[in-house]
Amino acid sequence: MQSAKQSGNVVLVDAGDAFSDIFYDPDSKVKAELIAMAMGKMGYDAFNIGENELRYGQAFLKDIAAKSGLQLLSANLRLGGQSPDFVKPYIIKDVGGIKVGIIGIIDPNVLGGQGTTKASGGDDFAAGDTTAALSTLVPEVRKQASVVIVLAHTGYGAARTLAETVPGIDAVVVGHGGMLLDPPVEVGKTVIVQAGTQGKYLGQLDLSLDANNQVIGFTGNTQALGPDVTTDPDMAKLVDQYKAKLQNPGTPTPTTTTKPTSTEE
Fold first, then answer.
1. What are phi and psi of 142, to 5 degrees?
2. Is this structure's pTM higher than 0.85?
3. Range of the domain at 125
């Protein structure tokens, strides 16, 4: 992954819920910060917000974004009726001379029956309609980018519906539900990928472009991240630094990020 990222023709993204949902663990924030710092060191281009991240509250999310350098995305997330200042609806990346637009969304249904969730510190987050958000943003992003990718924290079923409903999306990277799509699923002109859960797999999607930088084909696969994957010395050092901060060292400490998915041009 590191060598591919260094080639300059790769975007590295996460579709949400990289942080643990075990909130009774007194070390949950230490572990969440470790994951964010590890993602920052790996050069993630975009991190879409899931409901697990929201439960840590806006103050924590602002802090870890600043420390790690991660770009947090969510086009339809609301706090007090407004888009929170710690997320962007989308970004435009120059990937080897090709403009790539990356949009983040979260399904209101993953936040609860009313489409809301209360975070640590009392923040009341809500999510707007995903179809409405994408129907507005995809044409806007398409004017600026040749390739449009949606990070959809919706689960596979809702992501498939969005791909069927909203034209102009080249690829959807799915978070929530933990499905492993190998090979990717093609819905019309949109390819959908999802790389399992709990950091067990790395998903890779290679998009082929024509002379006009339009997507004309794809290949994709997932790689199991097992004990045969070589440990990175810098990452091991980072993990050891955070282990020293644990109140309860006996609980498992994450050694990789959750649901990493790369999209290579």
1. -60, -30
2. yes
3. 2-264
Q: Based on the structure, what is the number of domains in the chain?
A: 1
Contact predicate 198/222, CB 8 Å: no
Q: In tens digits, what is the pLDDT along the chain, a chain of 265 residues?
A: 554 555 668 999 999 999 977 766 889 999 999 999 999 999 999 999 999 999 899 999 999 999 999 999 999 999 999 999 999 999 999 999 999 999 999 999 999 767 788 787 788 999 999 999 999 999 999 999 999 999 999 999 999 999 999 999 999 999 999 899 999 999 999 999 999 888 889 999 999 999 999 999 999 999 999 888 899 999 999 999 999 999 877 666 565 443 445 554 4
CATH number at residue 17: 3.60.21.10
Q: How far apart are CA 79 and CA 121, in angstroms?
A: 13
Q: Is 147 exposed, middle or buried (0-12, 13-18, 19+ CB in 10 A)?
A: buried
Contact 100, 36 (CB under 8 A): no
